[in-house]
Amino acid sequence: MDAWLPEYTSDSLGTNLVVTRSSVAADILNDGAHRGEVTLFPETPARVAASQSAVVKNKTEGLAHRLWVAERNGVETPRKRVEAMGAEGKEAQLWETQAEASRVGPQAWRESGTLEEFLERMRPYGYSSAAGNQKQLRGRLSNFLRKLLRVVRTR
Question: Quick one: CA dihedral 66, 68, 73, 78, positive or negative?
Answer without folding.
Answer: positive
